Amino acid sequence: MVGELMQRLRELSAERENAALFFDVDGVLAPIRPLPGDAAVPDVVREALSRLVGSFKLVAMVSGRSAHEVALMLAVAGVTIAGDHGATIVRDGVEVSSVPPELLGRLEAAARMLARDGGLKKAGVRVEVKAASIALHVRGAADPADAMESAAAAASAAAAAFDLIHHRGRAVVDLRSPDADKGSAVRRLVLETGVRAALYVGDDRTDIDAMRALRFLEREGTPPLRSLLIGVASDEMPSELTEAADYLISQAEVLPLLKALERSSAEAP
Q1: Residue 238 included in any domain
Q2: Is 67 exposed, middle or buried (0-12, 13-18, 19+ CB in 10 A)?
Q3: What Å distances lie between residue 158 and 64, 115, 162, CA to CA?
Q4: How far apart are the C-alpha atoms of 243 and 149, rounded to whole Å?
Q5: What share of the chain is helix, strand, coil (3-state, %, to 5)?
Q6: Structural domain of residue 153, as residue ranges?
Q7: What is the CATH classification number for the domain harbouring 148?
Q8: Is the same domain home to 44 and 108?
Q9: pLDDT tens per residue, range 112-137
Q10: CA-to-CA distance for 244 and 91, rounded, in angstroms?
């Protein structure tokens, strides 16, 4: 990692008692796998995270997966989890923000509509119904581009029918509530904890919402938030991530970044 980024990490660690660390999971802490169920957070990454939990005021995971899934993947005590693109927040094992029943009804209706769409299965699209969102996966399809177009068209129709929003990610199209995104979750956690500095590490389009929220607090917060935004580069990276992030690193550099935070924290007064 470049010297300038290392210096920014040292500055963040110096105010760790008043700082938050936010991480996406898939593509950041866990390497991308053909099937979401095959993804795993390596033991060395989990151990590094566990050592940061006691040093920084907040260590949080922000994921499109359910909070329950993230908790099982991590098995790290003391982390806060914003799951389902921020719709559900779990702190110290207690759910402090849950999905409204009305939204669950709309998602169930959308799932039924998608299940009747024979074109999705034919295109190789896998529909995953989550606690507060629906993911249409195209990874592994015979023709990923065709599958993505089919998924996007079906998601668009379901979004219009049931007052949802849809967006494309890394080999996936997500359907979710317009009232919940990673940006809203991150902003809520920053304001609730009162941190004055934050790191965010993400790799996908939904992470840009979180980065923009932190950038807004950097400009408009009282006092302003000091943010450090890191994008994890990949062949599937949305171009907007380059504009939103302060730095780009590879997925292989995430563990060294965690270790750099740990060393900086140990060295800081």
Answers
A1: yes
A2: buried
A3: 19, 11, 6
A4: 25
A5: 50, 20, 30
A6: 101-176
A7: 3.30.70.1020
A8: no
A9: 999 999 999 999 999 988 878 888 99
A10: 27
